[in-house]
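Subject: sequence -> structure tokens, single chain

Hey, anyone have a minute? Need the predicted structure for the following. Not urgent.
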Amino acid sequence: MGCSTIGRDAAAIGGRDDIVMSMFVTIVETGVVLVEPRSFTGLMSLYETNHVRLRRLLGDPGQLPDELVTLSAHDLPLHVRVLERAPYTVVLHLTYWFPMGGALRADPDLTVRVYRDAKLAEACACTPRPHHRALSPYASEGRGAVEQRWIMNVMLGKWLDYLLGAGHAVAGRAPRSARSAS
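Reply:
Had a minute. Here:
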């Protein structure tokens, strides 16, 4: 598809202000893939998106206390613990705690490395066998390294979207929805 076709489509939609809309409509119609799933580029895109979501939820990861709990009227408390701090990275543990057989069990049980300088958030460790059936599609046992990273980071992204949508907020901060501007 040439530039003249895109310009013509934009004019048909409503003029100069709709060029971007036309571009996305054209991409959807032609099936152009902007980022290939399960590729290095796809992973970097997930890491960038997860960083944005994590900042919306928690604020600046470099300024987090060692432990905190986000609360929501519609969800379990999210427990966040800083495992490691370095000049350019922060490693976080994110989980819910479920009572099981007289003990507490973490699920999902994610370790997230935040690259503060590069603005990336990578789910780098996860329970290989989640305890809850709803998380079983995200089990990482028997998968290759790129596939494991892909699955963990898709799960992190979905979970962060859920947390934002459920109104989770750090004490003293107003909740920000997944659709809010950062």
